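Final report, Chapter 2: Outcomes

The project's central promise was a pipeline that accepts a single protein chain and returns its three-dimensional structure in a standardized token representation, suitable for archiving and comparison. That pipeline is now operational. To close this chapter, we reproduce one record exactly as it appears in the project archive, with the input sequence first and the structure output second.
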Amino acid sequence: MSKKSHHRSVTVRSACTAVLAALFSFTGASWTILAAQELPSPAAVASPRAYVSLSPVPRDHEFEIAVVVGIMPGFHMNANKVSLDYLIPTTLTATLPAGFKEIKTSYPEGKTLKLDFSDTPLSVYTGSFTVRIKLSANPDAPLGKHSLPFSLRYQACNDTSCLPPVKIPVTAAIEVAPAGAKTRAMSPEIFSAQPIRNK
């Protein structure tokens, strides 16, 4: 083979190698993107919505906030009362401004599931669940409209793997009126019943 032919052969092989490397790189990147798209952001798994039991809330009066949490299909999260000590419980934490007091937080019972990654059946929330918080507006609670902030903490999992734990904000809008003001019950389908069990 002449030097010229040999040089041409090497050039062709080099070009082919470069094309294959580029294709492999692109394919690998595509698989990486697809793998990332298979799992949602942890914060996207839960869709919480807050409801208040009274409108307005009179000073020196108790009221409730219900946070109804929808869970993305195919996922679950640990119940507040976990099956194993090392699991991360689902919690709802209030950061109340001056003039309000937290009295009690009620969580639903979870339902038991047997999952591939655990030998022990686990107590979990699926579909939707409701957390209810009993609060009190103090005699000196500031009048007018307020946003009460809460933080929902959970770890979402599917049947084979878990996403990182996450905290997402939840806000409840209320209006405070003078003591003895006329008020009306809100969302009776939520607050007239006993604390809702996991569905």
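Archive annotation: Residues 155 and 164 are 6 Å apart (CA to CA).
This record, like all others produced under the grant, will remain available to the consortium after the project formally closes.
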